[in-house]
Design brief:
213 residues; alpha/beta; five-stranded parallel beta sheet; two-stranded antiparallel ribbon; globular
């Protein structure tokens, strides 16, 4: 008998798929993949793109209990959480969310997610292009790759401490980031989003298998 599970993707504009006018971003690619596999006889795995452009973990903490409870599948939920690219940004010399508060917010969100799922994936922050590394952009935000490493280490530590999965997009992008990022130096381009989807497809496939318990 087929199962119907839900996949909930929380994040910012990179989760939402901004700057990808071709495929709609990595989560939308995965949504289409899961639907195709369902049509081929696999379990039903319905994916919800819950990314909001510009959001930090402050917004995540406020909405995650309501978003999950509104989309709770009795047959199982898989939750992906990808934040940090906005949190680590500085505006007027102040972090949008400093490292200590970032950790607190992530742990709070994870505690809520654990009420609905044992399958939680933390998504790494991507590296920034050299063109925006340490540069104040039009929005007034200043981002640096040094801070990416600090915030990603926080995510890795949280994953270990809470027995969660960690998806390391950062390492996958690092050597070819100038090819995989869009002109703004922050968001992936179509090629970058496609590679992100390829990395996650084996995870999605695990929940699509008909013999999953």
């Amino acid at each position: 008998m087929k199962k119907m599970m839900y996949g909930l993707f929380f994040g910012d504009s990179i989760t939402y798929g901004e700057y990808d006018g071709v495929f709609g971003g990595w989560v939308d690619i995965l949504k289409r993949y899961a639907l195709q596999r369902y049509n081929e006889g696999s379990n039903e795995f319905i994916l919800f793109n819950l990314g909001i452009g510009g959001e930090t973990t402050e917004g995540l903490v406020k909405r995650i209990p309501h978003e999950i409870s509104a989309r709770n599948s009795p047959e199982g939920n898989v939750i992906f959480i990808g934040y940090g690219a906005n949190d680590l940004a500085k505006k007027d010399e102040n972090y949008l969310v400093n490292p200590e508060q970032f950790k607190t917010n992530m742990v709070t969100a994870i505690q809520e997610a654990k009420k609905f799922s044992n399958d939680i994936y933390l998504v790494s922050i991507l590296p920034f292009s050299k063109n925006v590394d340490g540069v104040i952009v039009a929005s007034g935000k200043l981002r640096t790759n040094d801070k990416v490493l600090i915030y990603n280490q926080i995510l890795k530590n949280i994953a270990v401490e809470n027995s969660l999965h960690y998806i390391d997009f950062h390492s996958a992008f690092l050597d070819d980031k100038e090819v995989l990022l869009s002109a703004d130096g922050v968001h992936p381009n179509e090629k970058g989003y496609g590679m992100m989807a390829e990395i996650v497809i084996p995870i999605i496939e695990k929940y699509l298998q008909c013999n999953i318990s």
